[in-house]
Each structure stands twice: as C-alpha cells, then as structure tokens.
Design a protein that fits this description.
Aldehyde Oxidoreductase, domain 3; TIM Barrel; 2 domains; four-stranded antiparallel β-sheet; 11 helices; elongated
Length: 292
C-alpha cells in the first residue's frame, strides 16, 4: 500500500468521515449482531478500472477498531477486473460493518479518479504530452485526490497557491496587463529572495506574444481551439531559448473527444479538471464471506 501521506492529516480526514457516518452509534449493527461475532469480508470490483485508496480505507477500519486485520491483495495503481479480490478485512463483525461505508467511499471515489486519469493518459500515449491535474479538488481531500491521479499515471501540477506563480485572467485584469503582472512578481521575488516559476494564462495569440516578451517560464493556452493552439505552440517554440524552453500547457474545455488533437498540437502538458471534479466512482463492493 502507498503510505506516503501526512499521517496526522489523513487520520483527521478519516476520523471526520467516520463521525459524519457513525454519529452516536451504528444502531443497525449493534442491534443485529450477537456480541462476539467474528467475520471476514472481501473487497471486489464490479467493473474494470485502476485502484486507489487502499491506505485511507485500511485506516478507516483501524480507526473503528485497531484489532481489525486489513490485508491488501493488490496495490494502488493496479488494474482491477470484475470479481478480482482487492483486499480482505477480518475481525469483529460489528466493527467491520461500521467501517464498511467509509472505507468504500474512499476507495470508490479515489479509484474513480485513478481510472479516469488512466483513460486520458492512454489517449495521449506516445504524443509527448503529459496529463496533469488542477486545483479543482474536493475541499479537504486534495492530497488524496492528487495521489489518485498519480496512481492513474497522470502528474500533479500545483498543489496549492503556495508552490508556483500562476497569473490568471483576473490577476491580469487587476494588474493592468500581463507585462505588469509578471514584472511585479519578479520584483517581489527579488525582494523576498525567493524563486518561483511564473506561468501566465493566455486566451489569444496576442496574449501569448505578450507572455513570451514578459519572460514567462510557462504559458497556459486557455480555451483555445486546435488551430490557435498550433499557432501558439509554433510562436512559443520559436521564441524559447534552447537551454531554457518555455513550458506549454493546454487547459479549458478538455474532453476525451478532443484530447488526441490537443496533444498533437505539440503542447507539453494538458491540465484536466475533470480528473478530480467529475470522475465517476469505480463500482467496488465489500462482501462478507465468512461469519462465526
């Protein structure tokens, strides 16, 4: 299992999810099962996809009852097929059933993101373009969702507002121009003795030219059609220094129907908000296979 998380933060997320579901107690389980009942259950997929979310799922059971035994049979990033066992959990039947829905919610949601990401990655394979995510994540779940993108074969873009300068249309409008916005960022970085790469969002070829002249490290081509993108890529490549090429990102209105054509315009990366904000959950179930 992938355990490269801030454990305290993840425990807080899982504990909050359990409080939301369990509240004052799981009355159905408490009133249905005889005390001391022990069970084994198995996670299985009902459709083909890419697995993610094993660690938060295991942690959900551990938070309910530390004596529960969780055994992963696959790893995050593995392909799952209908009926193929994913993981098993054993122990007190009441604890197992209390943690079931929270564990499934994490695994289904994150596996859906990984599966959707893999579809986009496969669609641009061998084009040279990378599929990257955005900040359009579920509040509080960003780290988990971005890791699911990695499990699907995609790459992470910004993790937050703190790790890169991205001058978007509203920043440009407020600053007065692309040149003014970039200049101000460079000045303040120098004062702070800091170094961040600067990306500029552009929506026209004129803005692309201004971003190049301003010395942007990255240029985002936002909501452009395929022909505009090809022209923009050619202009940026012609103006880039061989030892310090400008990174080109395509963004906006990215669909599976367009993804191949976009990749073939020559962009370096394609950011897809749908990876995290619109991925359907992967159908995974947890079935009790033995009880004593």
């Amino acid at each position: 299992m992938d355990t490269k998380f801030d454990l305290d933060s993840l425990k807080e997320i899982v504990a909050r999810a359990l409080r939301e579901d369990v509240g004052d107690g799981d009355v159905t389980t408490e009133w249905t099962l005889a005390p001391g009942t022990v069970a084994s259950a198995r996670f299985e997929a009902r459709q083909t996809g890419i697995l993610s979310g094993l660690f938060p799922a295991s942690l959900a059971f551990r938070e309910v009852d530390a004596s529960l035994e969780f055994q992963a049979l696959l790893s995050d990033g593995d392909r799952v097929e209908p009926g193929r066992p994913i993981a098993e959990v054993r122990g007190a039947a009441g604890s197992l059933l209390t943690g079931e829905r929270t564990a499934l919610n994490f695994m289904r949601h994150l596996s859906g993101i990984a599966s959707t990401t893999r579809q986009y990655v496969d669609a641009v394979r061998n084009t040279g373009a990378r599929i990257v995510d955005t900040r359009k994540t579920t509040p509080g779940l960003r780290e988990l969702e971005k890791r699911a993108v990695l499990h699907g074969g995609g790459a992470n873009h910004r993790h937050g507002l703190f790790d890169m300068v991205l001058i978007k249309d509203n920043h440009i409008a407020a600053a007065g121009s692309i040149a003014a916005a970039v200049r101000s960022c460079r000045t303040n970085m120098k004062r702070a003795d800091a170094r961040y790469e600067i990306e500029v969002e552009t929506g026209s070829l004129d803005q692309v030219d201004e971003a190049v002249r301003s010395g942007a490290d990255w240029i985002m081509l936002d909501n452009m059609n395929d022909e505009e993108m090809r022209k923009a890529v050619a202009r940026i490549r012609a103006a880039s220094r061989p030892d310090q090429p400008i990174v080109i990102e395509a963004s906006g209105a990215i669909t599976m129907e367009r993804i191949g054509a976009i990749a073939n315009t020559g962009v370096d990366m394609i950011s897809v908000g749908a990876l995290t904000h619109s991925a359907p959950a992967l159908d995974i179930s947890l079935n009790v296979v033995a009880s004593t």
